[in-house]
Automatic annotation (TrEMBL):
GO terms for biological process: carbohydrate transport. InterPro entries: MFS_2, MFS_trans_sf. The keyword Nucleotide-binding does not apply. This is Sodium-dependent lysophosphatidylcholine symporter 1-like protein. It comes from Labeo rohita. Keywords: Membrane, Transmembrane, Transmembrane helix. GO terms for molecular function: symporter activity. PANTHER family: MAJOR FACILITATOR SUPERFAMILY DOMAIN-CONTAINING PROTEIN, SODIUM-DEPENDENT LYSOPHOSPHATIDYLCHOLINE SYMPORTER 1 ISOFORM X1-RELATED.
């Protein structure tokens, strides 16, 4: 009976809030300073740098450097992403249950898990032995993959939730999201470029060796190969060392970006949020999140769009297999840029509106923002894991051979199918789902008006509590 009364009261509060008209006499929320936006944006770079370097190169590293079978590599990539995705909601709930400290509620998670994230990322690219058994190799890379994804979730879930606690209004948050997306796109390019420049020289040497080998076989001249095995072994060792150096460089940038975030961003209370411990169980919180219709439609639209984009990864393999073709590379880069802009900027800008809509409809449920953001990240990572795992399994079944200088036509055809028809179908599904997204501009303005009224009533008191 008490629960029913509380639900009726919450509905009446939400209805009263939505019925209010714009009142210019209400105090306006101070905007977000540019310095805070920039420091917040820089904090998003570690995730994109490491995740994209891992996404672009981990498959190649396991297949051609570690000499792991395509099937084992696909299991690591898929199960690693699956574990990463499953752990996100759990970490989101743990963040929600944590209390507020002197430096905030979310920032301690970001700062104190950063060293573990850096260490696990470096160890992910470290080869402990020159020759490893298949079982040891699988266990080593799978363990560090899961550890890195876990610590990165401990960083990224509270970081993404921090957008709700930067201060300002909805436009200010969108502006901060725009800065963040710009930095993350730069981080994507920087991560791939840094890793690519460091390891690319060694892959180029191997490509030239393959070309020389093919030319030698074509002319029937075999020459003196007494040192060929030693040269191959030394080249492989140098390549492994290059991957480790690349990981150390990105790890140092990870530390620097986290330091800038810690110095430049302080958590601000938001309307209908107290930055305190939640008082609901994990299952209850998850039920409340997944039953919010706007959130469900946004998440599934984002899932299929994410699947469509990250199937793009095999296209990089296509580029590395075909002969050098500058127009092809330019076109691929343009498509990747447009995909990133649409995929990441718009849904992340829509997510705060969904969370605000939930808070207005459920004014007694506070501080569930990390749970919302963790589930959102969950579907992004789940889509990435599915796409990478499936693409690697396809390579296994069509006869991909690690380290081979030439590949059969079935491999090339499969990659082309994964690159074009599959993403198009997935994108069409996501567009249909977004077509039923219920929060339009009129609805968004009502939500913001409701939050302004709530902020006028509790904002000054909350700021005093936060300063204490």
């Amino acid at each position: 009976m008490a629960n029913n009364s509380a639900s009726i009261l919450d509905k009446q509060v939400a209805d009263n809030i939505f019925s209010t008209e714009n009142d210019d006499s209400q105090p306006r929320t101070p905007g977000i300073p540019l310095s805070r936006k920039l420091c917040y944006a820089v904090g998003g770079m570690p995730y994109q740098m490491t995740a994209n370097a891992k996404g672009f190169f981990m498959q190649i590293f396991l297949l051609d450097v570690v000499k792991m079978s395509a099937f084992s590599a696909s299991i690591i990539l898929f199960l690693g992403r699956a574990w990463d995705a499953i752990s996100d909601p759990l970490i989101g709930y743990a963040v929600s249950k944590s209390g507020r400290t002197r430096i905030g509620k979310l920032i301690p998670w970001i700062v104190f898990t950063m060293p573990l994230g850096v260490l696990s990322y470096v160890m992910l690219w470290y080869t402990p032995q020159d020759t490893m058994s298949s079982g040891f190799s699988f266990g080593w890379y799978f363990t560090w993959c899961c550890l890195f994804d876990t610590f990165m979730s401990c960083y990224h879930v509270p970081y993404s939730s921090l957008n709700m606690f930067l201060g300002g209004n909805q436009k200010d948050r969108d502006s901060a999201t725009g800065y963040r997306m710009g930095m993350e796109v730069f981080a994507t390019l920087a991560g791939a470029a840094i890793q690519g420049q460091i390891v690319g020289v060694h892959h180029a040497k191997r490509t030239r060796a393959c070309s020389l080998q093919n030319n030698t076989e074509g002319t029937g001249f075999f020459g003196n190969h007494s040192n060929s095995l030693d040269d191959t072994f030394e080249s492989l060792r140098n390549t492994r060392r290059a991957y480790l150096i690349g990981a150390l460089v990105l790890g140092m940038l990870y530390f620097l970006c986290c330091l800038i975030l810690f110095i430049g961003v302080k958590e601000q209370l938001a309307p209908l949020s107290k930055l305190d411990r939640i008082n609901v169980s994990y299952l209850t919180g998850m039920k409340m999140v997944v039953r919010h219709t706007p959130y469900v439609r946004l998440v599934f639209g984002f899932l299929f769009a994410s699947l469509a984009f990250q199937v793009y990864i095999p296209a990089l393999i296509v580029i590395s297999i075909v002969k050098s073709n500058l127009p092809t590379f330019i076109i691929m880069s343009m498509l990747a840029g447009m995909s990133l802009a649409a995929l990441y900027l718009l849904p992340w800008s829509m997510l705060p509106d969904v969370v605000d809509d939930f808070k207005v409809k459920n004014p007694s449920c506070h501080d569930l923002e990390p749970l919302f953001y963790s589930c959102y990240v969950f579907f992004n990572k789940f889509g990435g894991g599915m796409s990478v795992g499936v693409s690697t399994l396809v390579l296994h079944f069509v006869g991909y051979k690690p380290g081979a200088c030439k590949h059969n036509p079935e491999v090339i055809t499969s990659l082309r199918v994964l690159f074009a028809p599959v993403p198009i179908c997935l994108l069409l599904i996501s567009l249909v789902i977004f077509g039923f997204y219920p929060i339009n501009e009129k609805r968004r303005q009502k939500i913001q008006e409701a939050l302004r009224k709530a902020g006028a009533e509790t904002g000054l008191k909350g700021e005093e509590e936060l300063s204490l």
